[in-house]
User: Fold these one by one.
Assistant:
Number 1:
Amino acid sequence: MNSSAMSVDQAPGVASAPVASDAGEHDPILGTYKRPPTEMVRGEGVYLFDREGNRYLDFVSGIAVNALGYGDPGLREALHAASDGLVHTSNLYRTAPAESLARKLVERSFASRVFFCNSGGEANEAAFKFARRWARTMGEDKAHIVALRGAFHGRLFGTLAATDRPAYRLPFRPLAGEISIVERDLNDIAAALDETTAAAVIAEPVQGEGGVRVLDHGFLRELRALTKERKAALILDEIQCGLGRTGTFFAHEQAGIEPDILTVAKPLAGGLPMGAVLVTEEIASAIKPGDHGTTFGGGPFVASVASYVVDRLADPALLAHVSETGAWFGAQLQEIAQRTGRIRGVRGVGFMWGMDVMGTASHVVSEAMAAGLLTCTAGEYTVRLLPPLVATRDELAEGLAVLEKVL
Ligand SMILES: *Cc1c(COP(=O)(O)O)cnc(C)c1O
C-alpha cells in the first residue's frame, strides 16, 4: 500500500478522535453493509487516508457525493459561514437560504418550483406523490408508475418498488402498488402506459447502480414524446448522474429534452444530506398545502452550503473539464480493456464509468483497494468509477495505472 508522508497521529483533528475498529470489539453499527475493517480518518483533495496512514486515491467520492473532493477551501468556508446563521427552523416559516438555492436551481433548469428533502430516496418518494397528485386531476385511475429494467431509485417502500434488484425487493414484499418495472424498450413502455391509468415514467438518464448504462438520447426523446401523449409525467432521476457528473449541469440537457419532474441529491450539499425535487409550473399547480412535508428538508444551514456547491458545479469551466477529461478517461479505459483482455465492456460518460470485468466486481474492488485505489461495484460484474469532478488528468492517470496493474 501507499503510505502518506504525514503519519496520522500528527494530522490535526485526528489524534484525539475516537477509534472505531478496536480489535475484536463488537461492531455496534447494524450490518446493512458488508465492508472492510479499514477506518477512514481524513481526506485531502482526491485522497482518503485510513487510521494506519495508508493513502487511497478515491474513485468512489462517497458514491458521487464528494464532487469537490476532500477539504475544498471554499466548501470549508461555506460551512463555517452557514454555522453563523440559523441551523434549523422547520418548514413552518420561510428562510432566505432555501429560497435563494431554489432560485438558482430554477434559473438553471426547466423547473418553476423546488421541494427540498434529505436524501435521494426521499426525493423520489416525493416525485411519485407529486406525479400522482397531478395525474389524478385528469382521472381517478391515473396512478400507475413505470420504472425501467436496471433501475435504482432507492430503498424506501415506494422507491423500492421501482428498483430492479430482486435481492433488495423480495424480502420486503408486499411493496407499494401500481408501480411496475418494464424493459428499456419503447414498445414495452407504450404497452404499459394506458392513458387512463398512467401517472408517470421514471428513468435515470444514466443508470448508476444498475451497471452504469447511458440511456440513448433518441430513446429519451421518444420517451418524452410518449409520456406527453399518454398524459403521464416524465420523472428523471439525476440523483447520481446530475449536477455536473456527465459534463453538463443536468444529464438530460445532452438529449435536448425537459422532464416534468427532476430529482437530484448526492452531491447537492457537499456531503451534507439533501435532496431536491424540481417541478414544472403545471405539476406545481396541482400541489396544495398538506400534500407533502418534511421536518428537516431545506433547512437554512444545509441550504446555504448547497448554494455554494451549486455555484461550483454549474461553473462552465468545471463542466468543460468533466466533459473533455471524461471522454479521455473513457478512451483510456477502452485501451486498458484491449491491453489486458480482462474487461468485457466499458460504458459511461463524463466522470461516471462502469466496466464489466471477468470474475466478480467485488474481487476487483478489494484488490484495487489493497493497491491504494477506491472503486465500487454496480451489480455483480460491473466495477463503477466515480472520481471527484475536480480530479485532474494526472490524478485520473494514476488511478488508471493501478487499475491496469490489478486487472
Ligand atoms: C443513490 C441513489 C438513490 C437513492 O438515494 P439515497 O440518498 O441513498 O436515498 C436514488 N436514485 C439514484 C439514481 C441513486 O443513485
Number 2:
Amino acid sequence: MSHDPQWIHTAIRKIEADFQRSADTHLIKLDIPSLDGIDIYLKDESTHPTGSLKHRLARSLFLFALCNGWIGKDTPIIESSSGSTAVSEAYFARLLGLPFIAVVPRKTARKKIEQIEFYGGRAHLVDSPSEIYEESRRLAKELNGHYMDQFTYAERATDWRGNNNIANSIFDQMKLEEHPIPSWVVMSPGTGGTSATIGRYIRYQMHSTKLCVVDPENSVFHQYYKTRDASLTGECGSRIEGIGRPRVEPSFIPDVIDEMRTIPDAASIATVHWLEKLLGRKAGASTGTNLYGVLQLASEMKARGESGSIVTLLCDSGERYLDTYFNTAWIKDNIGDISGYLAQLEQLEQTGQLS
Ligand SMILES: *Cc1c(COP(=O)(O)O)cnc(C)c1O
C-alpha cells in the first residue's frame, strides 16, 4: 500500500523541526577523588523531552518507518515495550497525529504508564514480559496498524556512522578532556541498539576504546554472548527496568562487544543510592548497573596503575521509580539486602578499590 507522499513529507519535516529545536544532552564528569587519574563521565540521557535515551530511538524508528513507507496518515502505531520506548513513541505519534498503543508488562512502573497516557497513547497490559511480542503483532494485524518492533529495528534504524548519534556526541564532548579517548565505554542492553551503535562507531572511527556491556540478573544476553545459542529464553523478567531480556533480541549484536559482565541487581540498586549522594539527583536502576560496571573497571585500572577515562550513560531519571527502587520496603521485598554493596561503595570512596 502506498501512502500520501505529501503527508509523509510533512511528517518528516515535523520530526526534523522538533530535532532542530532540541539541545544535545550533557556529559557529566563525576568527582571521585580516590580514583585519581581515572575520570568517569555520565552521558545524561534523562534530559530529553520524554525523559530517557529512548527519545533518540523513537525518533529514529519513526523516521525509518516513514522513509520505508510503512506508516501513513491514519496508521495506528503499536509497540512492545517495558515502558520507556513507549513513552517516547507516544510523544512522536502525537506529533504526527497518529493513534498509539503500547503493549507493556503489567508490572511496568505506574509513572511510565501515566506518561504514555499523558502523550495521548494507550497502554495495553499483558501478564508476562514474554507475551508482549505476539500480542503486539496480533493487535497490529487486527487494527491494520504498524508494529514498530524496537527489538528488531533498534540496531538498524540508528545511523551508526555518525549523524549526531549518541557515540558521535560522546566522543565530540570528550574532545577537551584530559583523556579524550575513553579506555572504556560501558552500557547495559535492553534492545541492544545503543551498544551496537557505540561498538560500530568505535571501530569505524578506529579508536582504541573498548566496549563493556553489563547485564542484570534474569537476562539471557550474557549467556548468549558466551555460547551464541540464540534460542535461550528466561522465565521471569528482569527486575532492572529497561534492560535485561527473556529472549535474545535481534538488535543485540555480540560481535561489537569486547567484554560482558553480569551485575547483581542489589549492586545496581545500591549504586543509584550512592550516586544520589554524589550527584544530588536520582537515576533509574539501569544507570546503577552501568555505573557499578564502570567502578569495577576503574578499580581494576587503579590496581594496575593505569590512568584514563571511562564513559557510561545515565539512561533515565529515578523520579519514575520512587515507589520501587527508592522505596525501602520495596527493595527489601524484591531485591533483598543492599547494605553490603553500599559499604563496598563507601570503601571505594576511601581507597579507590571496590572489594
Ligand atoms: C532501553 C533502555 C536501556 C538500554 O538501551 P538499549 O539501546 O535498548 O539497549 C537502558 N536503560 C533504560 C532506562 C532504557 O529504557
Number 3:
Amino acid sequence: MIPTQVDLGSDTATRPGPEMRRAMCEAEVGDEQRREDPTVRRLEEMAAERVGQEASVFLPSASMANEIAYKVHTRPGDEIIIDRWAHPANFEGGGPAALCGATLHHLDTPRGIFTPEQVERAIRPDDPHYSRTRLVSIEQTTNVGGGSVWELARMQAVVEVARRHLLRAHLDGARLFNAAVASGLPASRYGGMFDSVTICFSKGLGAPVGAVVAGTEDFCREARRMKHLFGGAMRQAGILAAACIYGLEHHVDRLKEDHENAAELARGLHEIPGLKLDPEDVQTNMVYLRTDGLGLKPGEFVERLLAHGVRMNAYPYQRVRAVTHLDVGRDGIRKAIEAAREVAAEALGATAKSRT
Ligand SMILES: *Cc1c(COP(=O)(O)O)cnc(C)c1O
C-alpha cells in the first residue's frame, strides 16, 4: 500500500504548520479552569465577537460544544428539531440521548436545509402526552447535505418560527466560516440570531484541537458548569487556544482557495465517464459523487483510490465524499482527478470484459 499523498477524507486532516506551531510554543498560559489562562480568554472573546455573541467557552471539540449547548437548553424528555443527517443526530455517539436525555425530531431535507413550515409542523402541542419541543438545531454549512450554505433569509425564517413558539435555537457552525466566505456575509450575521453557536477550529481553520460554544454571558456560565461535568475543563490550554487564534487570524479568508479547489475537483471528476455528480452542487469545500455508474460500491471505489495514494470517504446515501482543505493544493487536486480517472477506467474496462 502506498502512503496517502492526497488526503481528501476530511478537512480535519490538516496539520499545524510552522507559524501556527510557533504561536503555540510562545503562548502565554495559566490555569484555564480558574479562568486564568490569558490566551484562552483572548480566544473566547475573539470567537464570541466573530459569531455575534456576548461570550464563548473554549472546549476540546465541536461535538462537546453541541452537546453542552443541548444540555444547557433542554431537560430530559425534551425534543430537539433537527435535520435527519445532522452531526449531533449521527456522529456524536448518541450524545443527545446519552448526555441530555433529549429526543430528536428528525426532519427530512434535500440538502440539510429545512423550511419554516417543516419546523412549524414538527412542534408538539402543549399536552403531557408529548415530549416538550424545546430547541431547533441548524447546521451551517451542512455536512451530509453537501457543504451547502443556508441562505440568511431561510435561516431567519426558521429562527423566527422558533422564537414565536418560545423555542431555543442552536447553530452548529462547525464550518460557519466556510459559509461566511462563500456567501460574503460576516459569520456574525448568521451567528447573532441564535441562543448558542458552535464553531470548530480543527476543520478548515487548521488547528490541531479546539472548538467554542458561544452565547450570552448567562448561557456561558451554565455552559462552563457543563464543561466541568463533561470533563472538558483543562489547565494550561492556552497552548491549544493559540493555534485557534492563529487559525482565526490567518486561515479564514483563505477558505476561498479550498472552495475553488473543490470546484476544480468537481469539474474534473464530472468529466470522468461513470462518475455522477453535479458541479453546480458544490458551494463550499465538499464534493459528493456517486460511483454506481462504475459498478462500484462507494467503499470499493474509496479502497481502490487509496491504492493510488488518494483518500476520499464513503458517506450516507451511497455516496463518496471529498473535502478540500489547507493541506491540499492544486497539484493534489490534479492528482486526485487523475487517480479517479484510472480507477474508473479500470472498473469500466472490467465491466466491459465481463460482458463479452
Ligand atoms: C466535525 C463536526 C462536528 C464535531 O466536531 P469535532 O470537533 O470533531 O467534535 C460538529 N458538527 C459538524 C457539522 C461537523 O462537521
Number 4:
Amino acid sequence: MVQINQHYLKLKAGYLFPEIGRRVTAFAQANPSAKIIRLGIGDVTEPLTPSIVAAMHAAVDEMAKRDSFKGYGPEQGYAFLREAVAQHDFQSRGVDVSADEIFISDGSKCDTGNILDIFGSDNRIAISDPVYPVYVDTNVMAGHTGPADESGRFGGLVYLVGNEANGFVPDLPTERVDMIYLCYPNNPTGTVASRETLARWVEYARQNKSLILFDAAYEAFISDPSIPHSIFEIPGAKDVAIEFRSFSKSIGFTGVRCGLTVVPKQLMGTAPGGESVSIHQLWNRRQSTKFNGASYVVQKGAAAAYTDQGKAEMRGLVDFYMTNARLLREGLGRVGIRVFGGVNAPYVWIKTPNNLGSWEFFDLLLSKANVVGTPGSGFGAAGEGYFRLSAFNSRANVEEALERIQKVL
Ligand SMILES: *Cc1c(COP(=O)(O)O)cnc(C)c1O
C-alpha cells in the first residue's frame, strides 16, 4: 500500500474551526429557532466595492474577445499589479521594494505554507503563542517538529509566549533560532508591534543570521501613524525578512483570492556546503514550477484597489469593520471585560470572565447569547482563558451580539 506523509498524523485531530462547527451545528439542531450570530472565523462579510467590480467586469470582457484574450500569465504576477503594489504599498511610504521583488499569488495563507518548500528541515523555528495556526501546522506537515504534547505544543518548535504582561507582543527568544514568524497587526490578539519592537526583531535577525517571516495581512487596518505597515520600514530588514500580504481582508477578497509575497533580491540563505544562495531565486523557481499565476481577472480587480476611487472604497470598508471593532471593544469594556486589540486590527481579544476556560466561555456564549466566537486556546496553549471576537460582520449583527453578550455577563 502507498505510504503517507506520516507527519500529518501528528496534527491535532480536533482542529479549531471544525470543532467550532460541530458545536454550533449541534446547538442549532437542538435550538432551531435560535438566531445565531457568528463572530468566529475571520471572514469578511461586505461585498466587493464598485471600482473593483467594474475592473473585474472589464477584464472578463477582455477575456471574451480574441484580440484581448489572455492565457497563462506570468507566474510572478502581471507587471501592472506588481508595479502598483511596489509604488503604492511601499515606495510611497519611503520603503525601497521594487516590482520584481513582489510575487503575486492566490492568497497569503498558501504562501506562508508554501514558503517552507525552499528551506531546509533542520532550521530552528520560533512561533508566537497564541498564533495563526497555519504557521504551526505547515511546519508539522513538513516534518519540522516532533509530536504534540498534551497542551498541544509540538516538540522542536520554540514558542514565544504572548501574555498580559508583555501586551501579547512576545519577547525575543533567549536561544538562537533560524526562522521567526511574526504577524502584525496580529491575528488572533489584535495587537500591533511598534517600530521599536520591530527594530529589535530585525536587529536580532541580523545578529543571529535568522529569517523573519512577516505576515502583514492586516496592515490596512492600522490607523496609528506611528505603527509600521511593513517590516521593510525598518532599516536593514531587507537582508533578513520576507513579507506576506493579502487582499483578503482589506478589499474583501477572501473568496476572490489574491495575495503577494515580497522576497528581497538581496536576501540570502545557506546551502549545506556553506555557500550563499539567493532566496529570491529559489522562490521564483518554486513558483514557476508549482504555481501558474493568479487569474488575470482577479489581478485586474486587485489593481483597481490602487486607484483613487479604489483607495477610498477600501478605506470605507476598513473603517466600517473598525467601527465594529470599536463598538465591541467599548461595549465589552463597559461590562467589565478586559479587552485587548481592536484598535489597529479587526479582532478583539478578551480575557474570559470569572476565569472560565476558553471552551467553557465558548459554550456559555453560544447557549446563552447565541453568539459564536473563537476560543483562545485554539490558537495555542497560551491562549487558554482568552477568547477572540471578530469585527467582520454587519453593524446590526455586531450591535445585537454585543447587547446579548452584555445581558449574559
Ligand atoms: C486572513 C489571514 C491571511 C490571509 O490569507 P489569504 O490566504 O490571503 O486569504 C493571512 N494571515 C493571517 C494571519 C490571516 O488571518
